[in-house]
Write a structure and sequence with these properties.
59% of the residues lie in helices and 0% in strands. It has helices spanning 2-58, 68-95, 107-118. Helix 1 packs across helix 2.
Length: 164
């Protein structure tokens, strides 16, 4: 009989230890969740700081010298995006043309098609040509520079100003 009493006592102690460990794990997970939420909030603030700093840079305002290289890199990548979006717009407009009998090749067609196939596109062009900007279909324009805005744009793709 003493054996069963001792066994029951051990099982009770193990169960209490397991319950304590489970409670600790639940609390640790809750705290880790709170830490994750705080880190995400910090990342959001960092992103806002960077966005605000870039908007100042794009507007020609003074920015810290140590950030200039990174801000210029953002501007270069935005120009690259503009060029890529212009290519997408061109491809879409080409695919939407009705299928007709192909026109006889002209000097312009031959030169343009050969140029497109022969010249690889640079990954980051130095400047985006003004005529390469996609034409916006909405009536929204940037209040900073007057460039037509893409539907749903949060920032002007030309000057980087935040739009309403």
């Amino acid at each position: 009989m003493a054996f069963f009493q001792e066994l029951g006592k051990k099982i009770g102690e193990v169960a209490q230890d397991a319950q304590k460990k489970t409670s600790e794990l639940i609390e640790i997970n809750r705290l880790n969740g709170s830490i994750k939420d705080e880190k995400e909030a910090i990342d959001s603030i960092y992103k806002k700081i960077g966005t605000d700093l870039y908007a100042r840079f794009a507007a020609g305002e003074s920015v810290p010298d140590h950030a200039l290289a990174d801000l210029q890199a953002v501007a270069d990548r935005l120009r690259t995006i503009l060029g890529l979006e212009a290519k997408i717009t061109q491809l879409k407009s080409d695919s939407e043309k009705p299928a007709t009998t192909p026109a006889a090749p002209t000097a312009d067609n031959v030169v343009n098609e050969a140029s497109v196939e022969a010249v690889p596109e640079p990954e980051q062009p130095e400047t985006a040509p003004e005529e390469a900007q996609p034409v916006a279909t909405s009536a929204r324009f940037c209040t900073g520079c007057g460039t037509p805005l893409e539907p749903g744009a949060v920032f002007c793709s030309h000057c980087g100003s935040k739009v309403d």
